[in-house]
Amino acid sequence: MEASGNDVEYRLQKAANGLDLSQPDGKIAYLTACVSILATLDSKIEQEVYAGRIAAEVEIEKSSVMAQVEKQMRKRRRSQSVQEFREIQKATSGFGDAVNPQKSQNLRAANAEEALTAYVINNPDMANNIEKWIRPEDFVTDFNRRVYETVTERIRENRPVSPTDLTQDFSEQEMSRIAGMLYKASVGGETLEAAKDYCKIIKQEKSSAKLREPLKDDEAKRLFEEIQKNKLGK
Fold first, then answer.
1. Tell me, what CATH number does 56's domain have?
2. Shared-domain flag, residues 52 and 121
3. Which residues are in the DNA helicase DnaB-like N-terminal domain (predicted)?
């Protein structure tokens, strides 16, 4: 509290620097700066204490200062909500994704991979069932495949797969993504039937991805020779 108070004191003093508080313009500029500072405080008591002092300095009612502080706090919350929404949109769409750059081009597959991986983490006793339905190589995106492989390998070795336990295998940014997978799973609910559907989606998307891949030189040559052979046979 004392450290917090010292910091606030310093910021308020700095806000007054260069301002003539005997003039209306100086009072308004000072009040505006102080309101922005108080809006960052978590403690309502601290806000009330400093608001009272500031009100006396600029010769207005304390309630007027607090009204401006609350207005500023609402504005900050709206701004944070918008930012959080944009982050969620970005994560869901996969655009600009440094952790899983393949996601934006394989959105349906990546979302199913994430949901399936979260299910296995939350239900390690079901891993054997899942491994009957899908293999790591069926995954479309490299990052999700690596997470799934790591999780299932740990389960086979009877090692825990909680987020805390996985930190040794993944970076902080990657762990943030895994935490996001688990959060979405907790909101959406999860069942074995849903996991089975995720496996089907992943395999379908894997097949579609293969069809979209450009032919390698030897494959193209082989296909051309086969077409030519068929033409000659007619």
1. 1.20.50
2. no
3. 109-204
Per-residue pLDDT of 102-120, as tens digits, reads 998 999 999 999 999 999 9
Q: Cα(187)–Cα(119) distance, rounded to whole angstroms?
A: 12
Whether 203 and 111 map to the same domain: the answer is yes
Task: Pull the structure tokens for residue 217.
Answer: 């030189």
CATH of the domain at 152: 1.10.860.10
Closest CA to 33 of 56, 8, 52: 8
Within the chain, residue ranges assigned H as helices are: 2-16, 24-38, 44-58, 62-93, 107-122, 127-133, 142-156, 163-166, 172-188, 192-212, 217-233
Domain that holds residue 220: 107-226
Count of Cβ atoms closer than 10 Å to residue 142 Cβ: 11
Distances 58 to 53, 55, 68, 188 between C-alpha atoms, Å: 9, 5, 14, 52
pTM exceeds 0.90: no
